Amino acid sequence: MPKKNTLYLTLFSFLYYGKALASDEGMPQLNPEFWISQIFWLTLIFGSLYVLLSKLILPKISNNLEARKSQIAENIEFAEKQRKESDQKLKDYEKIINDAKIEAKNIFKQAREKILRDINNKKESLEKEIDNEVSKAEKEILDLKKKSPDKINKIAIEASSDLVKQIIGAEVNNSNISAIVEDISKKNEGKYYGN
Amino acid sequence: MATNPMHQFNVYRIGPEIKIGEIDISFTNASLFMVVSSLAILILFNLGTKKNSLIPNKLQLIAELSYSFVSKMINDTAGSKAKPYFSFIFSIFMFVLFCNMFGMIPYSFTVTSHIIVTFMLAAFIFIGVTIIGFIKHGLGYLKLFVPSGVPMVLLPLIVVIEIISYLSRPISLSVRLFANMMAGHTMMKVFGGFVISLGIVGGWLPLSFSVALTGLEILVAFLQAYVFAILTCIYLNDALNLHH
Q1: Which of A56, A147, B22, B76 gives the lowest tally of CB atoms within 10 Å of its CB?
Q2: How do residues B130-146 score in pLDDT, each as one tens digit?
């Protein structure tokens, strides 16, 4: 260690140097004059420093460090709790959204079904009405069909009697004519009301 | 003789002569600088812990960083069992550090450059550690001198070496600090003397050396305080956790 060498060099040279000057003693450290005094004051001062530091100051520092540590731990714990809570809330939120979606779908479906049912009902009733109308009309037509040959016969008898009267100028017995007309119309029924 | 580089280490009486019987315990410049260092420590740490806020201010940060620094040092070297001795090691570290640092102020006195002071500290640590060792392990503490895994032939020699090395702990601990402090301060004084004797023409070289040495000495002042404290921790570790 070069430093130690330098130390010895300076020590020896200045021991010699000091003696040569004959003013100071070589090393004041080796002069025992104040050793007891130094020991006494060192004990007193270092002792009181130790007592004051260990009783007054160091506990304060350690308390404060502990307090900070626990505060940080608490804060971390709190943050962790908040995070968990927010996660839970996010989950809840998603669940609510999902439920709402399902509900909306259900409502839509129900509404659709209801509307379809209504439409079907209306259609059915309308169809029934139309059927009724149709059957009514058919019945009327049938009635008309049934009644019309008599009327036509009558008209034909009257028209024939009038015609005969006009042409030959003599009264013809209606019953004769009607027998003829009925005979003809029966013959030609298929031709007149051919279905 | 002010040009003598050893003159700075002179101890002289300040104020009246105080005697208990035949023993002289007068207040000296060394005592003064012990008081100054201790007061500086107390003031700094008192101000640093005055407003113990959650977010520290600058002084509080200094106090807390020194606390954690020493705490970590003790925990790393001596384990958790050394916690009760934290205050003592903290006080030793701070005391040595502040004495070293106050010694760096020109015209001041370096308390730790006196072998009697460092030896007293080291002897106290040595005796304290030995007592702790015997309290914790009883006579089993003597196993410290018998390392495991040593051949029987070498054992007597090893035990002797171990005992000598153990007994020389206070000497090495105290001489290391004292010699480092004294050597550095002497060298600075020597280079300072060169600056004067070489004058304005040649004095620049030793002056630049002096400047560089000042930086080095501040580093050494810290380093020696750290070494002193960490060796205390290592000795304490031996006493608390008997590994051999």
Answers
A1: B22
A2: 999 999 998 888 888 88
Closest residue to A49, CB basis, from B25, B31, B38: B38
The residue with greater pLDDT, B107 or A184, is B107
Q: Say how many C-beta atoms besides its own lie within 10 A of residue A181's C-beta.
A: 20
Return the structure tokens found at B5: 């580089």
Residue with tokens 């140097």: A17
Of the CA atoms within 13 Å of residue A108, those in its CB half-sphere come to 6
Beta carbons of B34 and A67 less than 8 Å apart = no
Burial class (CB in 10 A: 0-12, 13-18, 19+), B187: buried
How many CB atoms are closer than 10 A to CB B120?
19
Per DSSP, helices labelled H in chain A are 2-21, 35-52, 58-168, 174-187, 189-192
* Smallest CA–CA distance from B176 into chain A, residue: A4
Residue type for B164, please?
I
- Contact call for B87 and A50, based on CB within 8 A: yes
Task: Determine contact: B89 vs chain A, CB below 8 A.
Answer: no
pLDDT of B118 strictly over 90: yes
Q: How far apart are CA B196 and CA A176, in angstroms?
A: 182
Nearest to B112 by CA among B37, B194, B17: B37
Q: What is the mean pLDDT of residues A106-132?
A: 95
**Which residues from A are below 8 Å from B7, CB to CB?**
24
Query: Domain coordinates of chain B in residue numbers?
Result: 7-240
At A132-152, the pLDDT tens digits run 999 999 999 998 888 887 788
- Give contacts of B120 with chain A, Cβ < 8 Å: 38-39, 42-43
Q: What residues of chain B lie within 8 A of the CB of A24, using their CB? A: 1, 4, 6-7, 10
